[in-house]
Amino acid sequence: MTVQAELIEPVKVAPYYKSTGKEVAVFEHAYKNLLPLLVKGPTGTGKSRFVEFMAFSLGKKLITISCHEETSSTDLIGRYIIKGAETVWVDGPLTVAVKEGAIIYLDEIAEARPDVIVAIHSLTDHRRELYIDKLGIIIKAHDGFMLVASFNPGYQKGFKELKPSTRQRFVALSFQYPEPQIEIEILVNETNVDPSDAKKLVAIGNKIRNLTELGLTETVSTRLLVDAAKLIYSGLPKRLSTKVAIIEPLSDEPQITEALTDLCNLMI
Ligand code: ADP
């Protein structure tokens, strides 16, 4: 199994990120003190964007790995491959980051196979070392190396947990849905949508977020609101935009989607 590693060279244009608290300072100090960072919170709350933004502002390379249930330590550390008549070792993205001093972002780390957690163990404490068992060597991490992981807490069923002993190896930052005024600003900045429409979308988002009785596995994220705003800005009718970008991705149950459609239609 191979992973899709995205190596992002420091970019020239800053990714747009609207700070919602003290997270920028926390990241800077974690980096300065060689501490790994865990960003936790529901999907679509700006965790990845934040990490991209911080990599930019610190002028660092960022390697992002979207972890899934097949992601293994071999995918991250490296493997032997056959090249012609020879067998050559190829460093995986984690090894590259450790050697070059890049930021590695393990998105949804709890989804990965347990051996990934074992592999990062010695990187997340004072040792800052990576053990490559297939080569029988230990690599000391470059001073610029930083491990960042994201995690979606299992506050609702269906999410994998992260063991307390693993969590305690990280400095942790919690991400939540932003305050309405900030979320409106994000929508307008991301999509150029009219502020009055952004306001309505954020109101819809907050209304649905409060409908806990619907039992949705995940509720309306900022990402869904941004998608709806993009469709509206591009000229798709507003009600259709909210239906396809907000309601349909949330539920497949006709009763729920109908109720949410009625609700949205009253609000936009
Ligand atoms: P996560 O990694 O938490 O799943 P993302 O970082 O991918 O979420 O955020 C999803 C989208 O929401 C982003 O592409 C961006 O459009 C928007 N977004 C969310 N929060 C922010 C923020 N604070 N500043 C700018 N954009 C944001």
Account of the 3D structure:
With 268 residues, the chain is α/β, with parallel strands linked by helices. It folds into two domains: 5-174, P-loop containing nucleotide triphosphate hydrolases (Rossmann fold, 3-Layer(aba) Sandwich); 180-267. Helix content is 41%, strand content 18%. It has helices at residues 23-32, 47-57, 73-77, 93-100, 114-120, 164-167, 180-191, 195-209, 222-233, 238-250, 254-267, and strands at 5-8, 37-40, 62-66, 78-83, 86-91, 103-107, 129-132, 137-140, 146-151, 171-174. It has a six-stranded mixed sheet with strand order 1-3-6-9-2-10, sandwiched between helices. The protein starts with a strand and ends with a helix. The model has no long low-confidence stretch (mean pLDDT 92). Adenosine-5'-diphosphate (ADP) is lined by residues 16-18, 20, 43-49, 186, 190, 222-223, 226.
